[in-house]
Amino acid sequence: MTADSPGLPPEAVEPLMAAVNGARWFAGKGRRPVYRSFTPLAWLDADGPAGDRPRVRLAVLEVGYPDGSGVEHYQLALAYRHGPGPEGLAPLFRDGAADVYDATQDPEAARSLLEALLDERDLRDEGDGAGAVRFHLRDTGALDRALVPQVFRGQQSNTSVMYGDVAMIKLFRRLELGRNLDIQVHAALNDAGTADVATLFGWSEATWTRDGEVLGADLSMCVEKLADAVDGWDLALGELRAGRAFDEHAAALGRALAVIHDALRTAFGTSTQPGSAVAEVMTARLGAATAVAAELEPYGPGLRDRFATLGRGELEVQRVHGDFHLGQTLHTPSGWKIIDFEGEPVKSLAERVAPDSVWRDVAGMLRSFDYAAASVGGDGSAAWRDACRAAFLDGYTAGRGLQDGDADRLAAYEADKAVYEVVYEVRNRPDWVSIPLGALAGLAHETTEQNPHEQPHEGAPR
Ligand SMILES: Nc1ncnc2c1ncn2[C@@H]1O[C@H](COP(=O)(O)OP(=O)(O)O)[C@@H](O)[C@H]1O
Ligand SMILES: O=P(O)(O)O[C@H]1O[C@H](CO)[C@@H](O[C@H]2O[C@H](CO)[C@@H](O)[C@H](O)[C@H]2O)[C@H](O)[C@H]1O
Question: Of 20, 23, 370, 400, which residue has the fewest beta carbons closer than 10 angstroms?
């Protein structure tokens, strides 16, 4: 098989799967992924590469698991080189005479991604079985094909390449069949003129055929690179460790969230849901979570009572961020910017797109202040957290404070988030599970028995 033919040489399957299994963005680590198929998409440079640059194509790798659970699609960006590759970068596999590299790690290849966007390339299936790729430009901003690509190493779920100080292309790794929420929400918020999110310059999408069925997914988004941005979690921890208050930042975050919620209401509308239906969902989620994390058992009765308080009325619901925490915020010289509107990673697309109460996001940030305080620990942490909480709520409600019934609604959402966090921590950071468990001790309705986790800010993991 040559570099120009679609498909994957049989001997390349093993090294490719090993590379994918070891990648930070691979969601199925430790679950013995099984190779199912490799679908090449059209070459980005249909006429061949310029000079001695590598040829670049995207591809979809389909992966399954030995127990037959779930099929996952991962995007690969591949640079085919016939000469030496970038220094220090090992090829993923060999295809005929070509060494094939991860194009996001190969600066020459990464240039092709930006060029394809700037040219708004519409790369159709040429009858060779390769899927189609289409690039859409919304706003050229200061985009320029001469911008120098630089791989960004500080993330987990996806892969981003920075282009000078101007733009960032985020390649979605685990593909979601259908529309990508981050693209959809950025577009809507940009159209609404919201200053608290990055400008969406463009995006790309693909369609391909698998077993006679046409599948489609969004592949990447190109957004404004926010200058001098500091991650909200790092900033908060730094301030707390230095003994400095975070109230003003927290208030500004509350105001930013209120603006975003307003814009999401305008763009996607609102509806209502019986509180009892939401309580049922939360209760069911608690049951599923308890099956994974037995530590939740003592809180069961109190949490069910807590959720039941929602049953007293109707909840107004709308599109929300869905996984709002300090790590989804960037502090810039022009204020807070909110990123990553994809919701909680474990939820299905249908769940993440479903309208929800704004208290989901408010609760998410309150949980994050609690995490920050618990992970730093020490005498002043609880007071620091409570001050952040008050300032954030003040900013969110524009000084009006919580209205009738809001405190109960908020507490139910905080409890639901903390239940999710217990499972997240059991699976990802077992040393941190005492943080959400500590919060649940306070959030479970009075009926909950006393338990050893009730002092959330003592002995918290470092
Ligand atoms: N527009 C942006 N400008 C600059 N840095 C950004 C921008 N968007 C995200 N980042 C950086 O990339 C990191 C990961 O972004 P995120 O959207 O959460 O990606 P992932 O989906 O891979 O988790 C953020 O924590 C932030 O440091
Ligand atoms: O950023 P992601 O969408 O991947 O969110 C997941 O991972 C988060 C951790 O990185 C997790 O957040 C929890 O830990 C944070 C501190 O690391 C804390 O600020 C959050 O409040 C807490 O929920 C998030 O829940 C999970 O979905």
Answer: 400
Contact predicate 19/104, CB 8 Å: no
Q: What is the mean pLDDT of the chain?
A: 91
Structure tokens at 159: 């892969």
- Cβ-contact 33, 64 below 8 angstroms: yes
Confidence check: pLDDT of 196 > 50: yes
Task: Walk me through the domains of the chain, giving residue ranges and CATH numbers.
Answer: 10-224 (no CATH), 230-443 (3.90.1200.10)
Q: Whose CA is nearest to atom 18 of ligand 1?
A: 340
The reply to whether ligand 1 has any atom less than 6 angstroms from the CB of 391 is: no
Measure 341 CA to ligand 2 centroid, in angstroms: 13
Res. 455 pLDDT band, cuts 50 70 90:
very low
157 CB near ligand 1 (under 6 Å)? yes
Give the tens place of pLDDT for each residue, 340-367: 999 887 788 888 999 999 999 999 999 9
Written as six digits, the tokens of 413 are: 């959402």
Ligand 2 site-directed mutation target among 181, 325, 370, most atoms within 8 Å of CB:
325
Q: Which residue has the higher pLDDT, 178 or 382?
A: 382
CB 218 within 8 A of CB 203: yes
Q: Is 332 in the pocket of ligand 1 (CB under 6 A)?
A: no
In this prediction, residue 461 carries a pLDDT of: 40
How far does residue 327's CA lie from ligand 2's centre (Å)?
7
| Top mutation candidate among 143, 150, 155 for ligand 1, by most atoms within 8 Å of CB | 155
Helix (H) / strand (E) containing 205 = strand 200-210
- Classify each residue of 139-157 as buried b or exposed e, where b means 16 or more C-beta atoms within 10 Å of its C-beta: eebebeeebebeebeeeee
Find the DSSP H helices in 143-246: 181-191, 232-241
Q: Give every CB contact of residue 25 below 8 A, 6+ residues apart in sequence.
A: 74, 156, 157, 158, 159, 173, 174
Q: Is the CB of 339 under 6 A from ligand 1?
A: yes
Instruction: Find tokens 């239906």 and name the residue.
Output: 277
Nearest CA to ligand 2 atom 21: 368
Where are the alpha helices (H) located in 129-243, listed in sequence order? 181-191, 232-241
Point out the ligand 1 atom lying closest to the alpha carbon of residue 225.
3
Task: Calculate how far, in angstroms, residue 243's C-alpha sits from the geometric centre of ligand 1.
Answer: 27
